[in-house]
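cache lookup: miss for this entity combination. No prior model stored, computing from scratch. Input as submitted by user K.M.:
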Amino acid sequence: MKNAFQELNKAFESRIRLGIMSALMVNDFVDFNTLKELLELTDGNLASHLRALEQLAYVRVEKSFLGRKPNTRYAVTPEGRVAFELHIVALEKIIKSM
Amino acid sequence: MNPSFKPQDDLAQIRTIMERSTKFLSLSAFAAILAGVYALVGAGIAWRIIYGSDKVLYYDLKQEFITSDTLPLILVAGGVFVLAVGTGLLLSYRKALAAGQALWNAPAQRLVFNFIIPFSTGSLFVVILYFRGYYSLLAASTLLFYGLALLNAGNFTFSDIRKLGMAEIVLGILAAIFPGKGLLFWALGFGVMHIVYGVIMYRKYERR
């Protein structure tokens, strides 16, 4: 029981980061505005959580242009994928032991 | 450990976000019911045109592709299609609006893209069949390609729509086995099936 709690990843304690990772896990890329709409967040709030995940190397950014409009899109890194899967396994373990 | 920590809620949140970011869930059940009603009305009008006339339709068709008998049939089919798509768009837009989501979001684009490829292939094929005189295969082909399009689109919206697709495919095969009963299978596939599907979806997801 105690072990499972230790296996939880501190980076995913926030619901917002959990939401960002969930969306990125099942899509090749998700752009900033889609994430904002999906998670119902403000620009600043979303950006700060994305930056945190980026610094952990769980998320990578790709900036491009759609015509003349700048478009920022995000993808999960292999490290991020493994970390998130381990976090889900830990959550499931805790539920089973309750 | 934080006593308010609820791992079930975290997992539920993960599942919701994963589903919302990949599946288009604003499809309206009521629009499916209305599409079925339009199709049944259209089939009724078509039945009167075909069986209410003494002339042999197919005989005329050998000389000309579009005759005074077939033009109303084409108009009825086109009218049913435009009404059904229009209603679907309008009611889905309202459903998306009520849920605070955009209608033309990434899942919607994926849904339309995956539907439109088999659907437009089928439409083109049906037009070719018509001009080459294979009238007995028209009903079967429309049902088969529509069913395949739904099956393909089902990965990007409620998975129940895949079952509707399979039902359309079965009806399409039956329509090919029993030529001359095309209108009947058409009414079953586009009319009755849409109503049944719409009622099931309404009861499952929209009734509160």
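stored under new cache key. The first helix of chain B runs from residue 7 to 22.
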